[in-house]
Each structure stands twice: as structure tokens, then as C-alpha cells.
Amino acid sequence: MPKILLVDDTEDNRDMLTRRLQKRGFDVVGAVNGVDACEKANSEAPDLVLMDMQMPVMDGYEATRTIKKAAETCDIPIIGLTAHAMAGDREKALAAGCDDYEAKPINFSQLLETIQTLLEKRSTP
Question: Which terminus of the chain, N or C, has fewer Cβ atoms within 10 Å?
């Protein structure tokens, strides 16, 4: 069962996505900000990270850069999530190190496809 680290400072968003992902067979670990995300990326060894880009303490851009910089976590795929989908946001997330990007509100079917694609890509040598 693939493990997903879900990073979002909004409890309702974490709860909703956690339930939906668990119904699809994923093990979900939550984090509430970028610092928490970086720590859990190391301690939980997730197969993929869903990263909210707009958070207090440390935003998703900085957390993504930190995770991608560390040798132990650099190969974990990260999907950036943001409610502030404006021109250039996708490029900014990809430049920070995200492997893909989804705007909120999340199209769950599309998100699942992206998750599967990135997990398959990671497992292929």
C-alpha cells in the first residue's frame, strides 16, 4: 500500500483528502506546515507527497526545495496543490521542485491519475 504524505494547514482539506485517498487503498500521513512536512518526509519515507503551496511557518515552495535537496528524500515525487491558481503558479511550483501541480478545488479523478503516473514512474528502474 503506497504511503502519501499529505501536507495542508487546513484541517478540513486534510480530512477530506485523507478519507478519499484511504478509500482508494493509500496509507496517508498528515503534516500541517512545511517544517512538519520536511520532518515527516524523513521519518515516514512516503512514496509521494501532496504539498499545499500556501502555508504558515514554511510554505510549500521552501519545503519542496528542502525535500528535493536532501539525498534521503530527493527522489520522492511531490505534487503541488494550491487554491491560488494564477498565471505562473504551475511554473513556480515546478521550478521549486514539484513533479506536478494541481489547482484547488481538487479534481480527484485527475489527482488519482497523476498520483498513479508518478508512482509508476518512481517504481520503474
Answer: C
